[in-house]
């Protein structure tokens, strides 16, 4: 029995998506949704997680985000795009992450529609989930008040 590649990938990444969506993080699936989210963030703060299938997303990024979201001070909005899955939405999101090069996983915090804090893949790979959570909590406490 043959399974289509798209079906296989949807099944494979479902639990990776759910690591974030079960926390209340909203998926952005289209470029238009990304633009709408950025527009909404102009009246507050927004966390944007660029999710991916790699090991550092599973071991450090998503668990770090989950721990950080237990903080008392939080972003107004929380969103995610999935690199390699919703390619157009991810490309649109990356337009707002300049001057940083494409990086997945990565974590961005926006304040009033402007990038205020960014954690790139190389800052995720060799750090623990607790370290990433600490970095995010510091950013939340600084920018989300």
From TrEMBL:
Pfam entry (one): Disulph_isomer
InterPro entries: BrxB/BrxA
Family: Belongs to the bacilliredoxin family.
Protein's recorded name: BrxA/BrxB family bacilliredoxin
Species, as recorded: Paenibacillus alginolyticus
């Amino acid at each position: 029995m043959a399974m289509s590649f798209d079906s296989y990938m949807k099944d494979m990444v479902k639990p990776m998506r759910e690591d974030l969506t079960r926390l209340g993080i909203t998926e952005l699936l289209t470029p238009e949704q990304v633009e709408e989210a950025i527009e909404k963030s102009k009246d507050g703060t927004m966390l944007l997680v660029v999710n991916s299938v790699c090991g550092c997303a599973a071991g450090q990024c998503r668990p770090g985000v989950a721990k950080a979201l237990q903080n008392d001070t939080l972003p107004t909005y929380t969103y995610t795009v999935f690199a390699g899955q919703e390619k157009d939405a991810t490309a649109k999101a990356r337009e707002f992450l300049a001057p940083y090069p494409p990086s997945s996983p990565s974590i961005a915090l926006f304040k009033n529609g402007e990038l205020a804090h960014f954690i790139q893949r190389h800052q995720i790979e060799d750090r623990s989930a607790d370290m990433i959570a600490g970095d995010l909590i510091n950013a939340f406490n600084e920018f989300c008040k």
